[in-house]
Amino acid sequence: MTLPRFKEFEDVQSALGALTARPLGVIQVPIDEIVGSVGRARFFPRGLRAGRGLTPSRVRRLTAALNHGDVLPPVLLYRIGHEYFVADGHHRIAAARLFGQQFVDAEVVAYLPEMHRPEDVVARERVLFEQQTGITTIVLHEVGQYPKLLRWIQDDARQQARGMDPAQPVQDGALKNAARAWYTRVYYPTIQDPAFRRLRRFFPDRSPGDVFVYVGDHKWIMSKAAGRDVGIPAALESFEQHLKRGRGALGFTRWLEGLVGLVSRPSGLK
């Protein structure tokens, strides 16, 4: 497989005006989302692989350490939007890729664009979502999706804590615990469901997180119409059937907007 040419962090930072730094701590980062380097991209014309920018013997030594069960120290990555750039740890990442890892532990600093394009707003929303929930692997591309997902997690936390006042805010520590539980109990099983994987074929340019939100919107509409929570399996089946009827992704968006308008309309209006 030919790896894409690495991007230079400073070029992207300058083009987007991404100057505000927000440390995120040590998190797991998908290796496929690492797209560039800080000051060394010119050494990787064929991506992060042994050559001018990497010492093959060092990569082999690190790969051997992984084979022996050793845990390598976290690398240092900078993030702009949804893309990661290597500040320190090029050899460790190359070894992890060669070893077959999909994720790498990384100390991450997010650099936030100061402009107001939709993707800049999403980047700021993502950091806030990550700081509040501790969930760092959900990638969304539309304005308002991260705040919506946060509300769903908060609602789920209140439902799980029986007797909790629906208007009572979920405290920070409790919210992170609830978010981890929600991810394990709701989000991850849903995106692994075969029906969900079939749905993704209708949205080739969208992430699993994006499609999850679409399914959640569909579930909300179905539940409002039924007067009860219909559950995710029913929403997945209904959503797939809707898309198969030829309406496609664009048709779904228009249909959803229309239904939201109907459900939100005061009951006195016909």
Describe this structure in words.
This protein has a 6-stranded mixed β-sheet with strand order 1-3-5-4-6-2. It has a domain at 1-115: Conserved hypothetical protein from pyrococcus furiosus pfu- 392566-001, ParB domain. The protein has 270 residues and is an alpha/beta fold. Strand 4 (75-80) and strand 5 (83-88) form a beta hairpin. The protein is built from 9 helices and 6 strands; from the N terminus they run βαββαββαβαααααα. The longest helix is centred in the C-terminal third of the chain and has 33 residues, at 232-264.
Task: Briefly summarize what is shown.
The chain is 52% helix and 16% strand. It is an alpha/beta fold.
List keywords for this structure.
270 residues, alpha/beta, Conserved hypothetical protein from pyrococcus furiosus pfu- 392566-001, ParB domain, six-stranded mixed beta sheet, 9 helices, disordered C terminus
Main beta sheet strand tally, sense and closure: 6 strands, mixed
The beta-strand count equals 6
Low-confidence stretches: 262-270
Alpha carbon gap, first and last residue? 58 Å
Instruction: Give helix and strand order, one letter per element, not per position.
Output: EHEEHEEHEHHHHHH
CATH architecture designation of the domain at 1-115: Alpha-Beta Complex
Q: State the helicity in percent bands.
A: 40-55%
Looking at CATH, the homologous superfamily of the domain at 1-115 is: Conserved hypothetical protein from pyrococcus furiosus pfu- 392566-001, ParB domain
Shape category:
globular
> In CATH terms, what is the fold-level topology of the domain at 1-115?
Conserved hypothetical protein from pyrococcus furiosus pfu- 392566-001, ParB domain
* Oligomeric state as shown: single chain
Number of helices: 9
CATH class of the domain at 1-115: Alpha Beta
The proportion of residues in beta strands is: 15-25%
Integer average pLDDT: 85
SS-based structural class? alpha/beta
State Rg. 21 Å
Spatially, the strands of the biggest sheet line up as: 1-3-5-4-6-2
